Amino acid sequence: MNRILQFTISYLGLLPYIYFLSDLYIFKLIDSNIIINLIIFNTIIIYTFIGAIHWQWLQKDESTIYTIHGFIPSLVSFFITIMTLLEFDKGYLLVFLIIFLLIQLMLDFLCYLNNKLDYKVMYFLRIPITTSLCVILIIPVLFNNY
To answer: What are all long-range contacts of 127-130, with beta carbons under 8 Å and residues at least 24 apart?
Structure first.
Protein backbone atom coordinates (compact mmCIF):
# COMPACT_ATOMS: atom_id res chain seq x y z
CA MET A 1 0.00 0.00 0.00
CA ASN A 2 1.17 3.51 -0.69
CA ARG A 3 2.95 4.97 2.33
CA ILE A 4 1.12 8.32 2.03
CA LEU A 5 -2.20 6.47 2.15
CA GLN A 6 -1.06 4.49 5.20
CA PHE A 7 0.00 7.66 6.98
CA THR A 8 -3.25 9.43 6.05
CA ILE A 9 -5.37 6.57 7.37
CA SER A 10 -3.30 6.52 10.57
CA TYR A 11 -3.78 10.23 11.18
CA LEU A 12 -7.49 9.93 10.42
CA GLY A 13 -7.63 7.54 13.37
CA LEU A 14 -7.42 10.61 15.62
CA LEU A 15 -10.72 12.02 14.30
CA PRO A 16 -12.94 9.88 16.57
CA TYR A 17 -11.06 11.27 19.56
CA ILE A 18 -11.66 14.83 18.41
CA TYR A 19 -15.36 14.02 18.13
CA PHE A 20 -15.38 12.31 21.54
CA LEU A 21 -13.74 15.31 23.23
CA SER A 22 -15.97 17.81 21.46
CA ASP A 23 -19.04 15.86 22.54
CA LEU A 24 -17.71 15.48 26.06
CA TYR A 25 -17.03 19.20 26.55
CA ILE A 26 -19.14 21.09 23.99
CA PHE A 27 -22.11 19.23 22.51
CA LYS A 28 -22.92 16.88 25.41
CA LEU A 29 -25.17 14.69 23.23
CA ILE A 30 -23.93 11.38 24.62
CA ASP A 31 -23.55 10.47 28.28
CA SER A 32 -20.04 11.28 29.46
CA ASN A 33 -19.51 7.77 30.88
CA ILE A 34 -20.24 6.29 27.45
CA ILE A 35 -17.82 8.74 25.81
CA ILE A 36 -15.02 7.84 28.24
CA ASN A 37 -15.69 4.14 27.65
CA LEU A 38 -15.54 4.73 23.88
CA ILE A 39 -12.24 6.55 24.30
CA ILE A 40 -10.83 3.69 26.38
CA PHE A 41 -12.06 0.94 24.03
CA ASN A 42 -10.90 2.79 20.90
CA THR A 43 -7.46 3.25 22.46
CA ILE A 44 -7.32 -0.43 23.40
CA ILE A 45 -8.05 -1.35 19.79
CA ILE A 46 -5.25 0.90 18.54
CA TYR A 47 -2.81 -0.30 21.20
CA THR A 48 -3.52 -3.96 20.40
CA PHE A 49 -3.33 -3.33 16.65
CA ILE A 50 0.12 -1.74 16.95
CA GLY A 51 1.30 -4.71 19.02
CA ALA A 52 -0.07 -7.17 16.47
CA ILE A 53 1.60 -5.36 13.59
CA HIS A 54 4.92 -5.42 15.43
CA TRP A 55 4.49 -9.04 16.34
CA GLN A 56 4.20 -9.83 12.64
CA TRP A 57 7.19 -7.67 11.65
CA LEU A 58 9.51 -8.50 14.51
CA GLN A 59 8.75 -12.20 14.83
CA LYS A 60 10.76 -12.84 11.67
CA ASP A 61 13.90 -12.70 13.83
CA GLU A 62 12.48 -15.42 16.10
CA SER A 63 13.59 -13.43 19.12
CA THR A 64 11.66 -13.97 22.34
CA ILE A 65 11.96 -10.28 23.22
CA TYR A 66 10.24 -9.21 20.00
CA THR A 67 7.53 -11.82 20.44
CA ILE A 68 6.82 -10.55 23.96
CA HIS A 69 6.87 -6.97 22.65
CA GLY A 70 4.12 -7.92 20.20
CA PHE A 71 2.07 -9.99 22.66
CA ILE A 72 2.03 -7.73 25.74
CA PRO A 73 -0.43 -5.16 24.26
CA SER A 74 -3.07 -7.88 23.87
CA LEU A 75 -2.63 -8.97 27.46
CA VAL A 76 -2.68 -5.41 28.82
CA SER A 77 -5.73 -4.60 26.70
CA PHE A 78 -7.57 -7.61 28.10
CA PHE A 79 -7.00 -6.46 31.69
CA ILE A 80 -7.94 -2.85 30.93
CA THR A 81 -11.13 -4.08 29.24
CA ILE A 82 -12.02 -6.12 32.32
CA MET A 83 -11.26 -3.18 34.63
CA THR A 84 -13.41 -0.90 32.44
CA LEU A 85 -16.33 -3.31 32.55
CA LEU A 86 -15.94 -3.61 36.33
CA GLU A 87 -16.26 0.21 36.56
CA PHE A 88 -12.70 0.78 37.74
CA ASP A 89 -11.84 4.51 38.02
CA LYS A 90 -11.71 5.80 34.42
CA GLY A 91 -9.06 8.39 35.25
CA TYR A 92 -6.66 5.68 36.37
CA LEU A 93 -7.43 3.59 33.29
CA LEU A 94 -6.68 6.54 31.01
CA VAL A 95 -3.40 7.15 32.83
CA PHE A 96 -2.53 3.44 32.54
CA LEU A 97 -3.23 3.59 28.81
CA ILE A 98 -0.99 6.64 28.45
CA ILE A 99 1.82 4.87 30.32
CA PHE A 100 1.49 1.71 28.23
CA LEU A 101 1.36 3.69 24.97
CA LEU A 102 4.54 5.51 25.95
CA ILE A 103 6.26 2.27 26.95
CA GLN A 104 5.26 0.79 23.61
CA LEU A 105 6.64 3.88 21.86
CA MET A 106 9.95 3.58 23.73
CA LEU A 107 10.22 -0.11 22.83
CA ASP A 108 9.45 0.76 19.22
CA PHE A 109 12.19 3.35 19.33
CA LEU A 110 14.61 0.68 20.55
CA CYS A 111 13.51 -1.49 17.63
CA TYR A 112 14.16 1.48 15.35
CA LEU A 113 17.65 1.87 16.83
CA ASN A 114 18.26 -1.83 16.11
CA ASN A 115 17.22 -1.20 12.47
CA LYS A 116 13.96 -3.13 12.85
CA LEU A 117 11.67 -0.19 11.99
CA ASP A 118 11.83 2.41 9.25
CA TYR A 119 12.73 5.95 10.34
CA LYS A 120 9.75 7.40 8.44
CA VAL A 121 7.37 5.20 10.41
CA MET A 122 9.05 6.22 13.65
CA TYR A 123 9.40 9.97 13.12
CA PHE A 124 6.38 10.75 10.96
CA LEU A 125 3.86 8.27 12.31
CA ARG A 126 4.55 6.63 15.67
CA ILE A 127 5.97 9.58 17.59
CA PRO A 128 3.48 12.26 16.43
CA ILE A 129 0.38 10.07 16.65
CA THR A 130 1.27 8.51 20.00
CA THR A 131 2.10 11.92 21.43
CA SER A 132 -1.17 13.36 20.12
CA LEU A 133 -3.11 10.40 21.48
CA CYS A 134 -1.51 10.77 24.91
CA VAL A 135 -2.38 14.48 24.99
CA ILE A 136 -5.95 13.65 24.00
CA LEU A 137 -6.17 10.96 26.69
CA ILE A 138 -4.88 13.26 29.44
CA ILE A 139 -7.54 15.94 28.77
CA PRO A 140 -10.42 14.00 30.41
CA VAL A 141 -8.12 13.17 33.33
CA LEU A 142 -7.21 16.82 33.91
CA PHE A 143 -10.73 18.15 33.32
CA ASN A 144 -12.62 15.41 35.11
CA ASN A 145 -16.31 15.89 34.36
CA TYR A 146 -17.44 12.36 33.56
So the answer is: 129/10, 129/11, 129/13, 129/14, 130/101, 130/102, 130/104, 130/105
> In 3-state terms, what secondary structure has residue 41?
helix
The answer to whether the pTM exceeds 0.85 is yes
Question: pLDDT digit string (tens) for 57-80?
Answer: 655 666 677 777 778 999 999 999
**Rounded distance, CA 54 to CA 43, Å?**
17
- State how far the Cα of 30 lies from the Cα of 23, in Å rounded to an integer: 7
Tell me whether residue 6 is in a domain. Answer: no
Q: Is residue 5 part of a domain?
A: no
Closest CA to 93 of 75, 80, 112: 80
In a domain, 8, yes or no: no
- Cβ 110 vs Cβ 56: under 8 Å: no
What percent of the chain clears pLDDT 90, i.e. is strictly above it? 67
- Which parts of the chain are beta strand (E)? none
- Vertex 40 angle, CA 38 and 44, to 5°: 115
Domains: count for the chain: 1
